[in-house]
Amino acid sequence: MTGQEEPSSFRLAYVPGVTPTKWVRVWNERLPDVPLTLLQVPAAEAFELLRSGGADAGFVRMPVDRTDLSAIPLYTETTVVVVPKDHVIAAVEEVSPADLADEIVLHPLDDTLDWERPPGLPAIERPETTADAIELVAAGVGLLVVPQSLARLHHRKDLTYRTLSDTPESRVALSWPQDETTDLVEQFIGIVRGRTVNSTRGRPATPPQPKDKAKAKTKRPEAGGGQRKTASGKASGQGPRGGSGGAKGAKAAKGGVKRGKPGKPRRRS
Predict the structure, then answer these.
(1) How far apart are CA 123 and CA 142, in angstroms?
(2) 47-66: buried (b, 16+ CB within 10 Å) or exposed (e) per residue?
(3) pLDDT at 266
């Protein structure tokens, strides 16, 4: 934490292809009093936005300059080749760079893959954006190699994509200015890392209530029917609930119904 007063909202940048929905949902559940503002920004402009204070944190594509920015790598994307649906490549599940050797492969200026040399044959001109390259693929000018999320983002009914093996992969990371690791940034880091709401690095958990050491004792009935002595020193035989005692009590205990005297035997005729 920098010691500055916390802002009234949290500004989260994200580059095309990243879907921050699940993290935003958790944020709204845990911090409903702090609005989260989403800022979509081109991949090439994301780092400058963070450095200038235009966003508190952002989902970016690596590599990240660690000189003044912190970063947590999150996941690696599959690389795919975008082709027309009637292209021969659409008939298979996966291709290699060698399969693109005779194909024109477009290389847009905002490409997010760290190529030494893109596969295939280069186009006469490089498209300015990935969106422009998608239009050229649909027009039959060439093919396009991108992270899978960008292929989904620019989905068209007349295009499809297939996995491309043995090529560079794009890694997505959460990044923020090193000198601006505020409490809200820590909160968002915890959400992205999957920490629970009671995590020691999240919001302070409610302290556990002390247990009551004095447990209630259950009274036990007195042994032996609860007899007690009267003033004369004799046992009263009165039970714990005040029932009658002595011989009468014992007699009543043996039989609850009185039987009459036995009658005289009848004469036999």
Answers:
(1) 8
(2) bebbeeeebbbbbbbeebee
(3) 54
Contacts with 94 (C-beta within 8 Å, 6 or more apart), sequence order: 162, 163, 164, 165
Average pLDDT on 191-202 reads 74
Check whether 13 has a pLDDT greater than 90. Answer: yes
pLDDT of residue 45: 95
- What is the model's pTM? 0.69
Radius of gyration of the chain measured on its C-alpha atoms:
41
The bridge status of strand 159-164 relative to strand 36-40 is unpaired
DSSP notation for 159-226? EEEEEE-SS---EEEEEEEGGG--HHHHHHHHHHHT--TT-TTSSPPPPPPPP--SPPPPPPPPSGGG
Give the tens place of pLDDT for each residue, 71-105. 999 999 999 999 999 999 999 999 999 999 999 99
172 in Cβ contact with 18 (< 8 Å): yes
Residue of 102, 98, 94 lying closest to 78 (CA atoms):
94
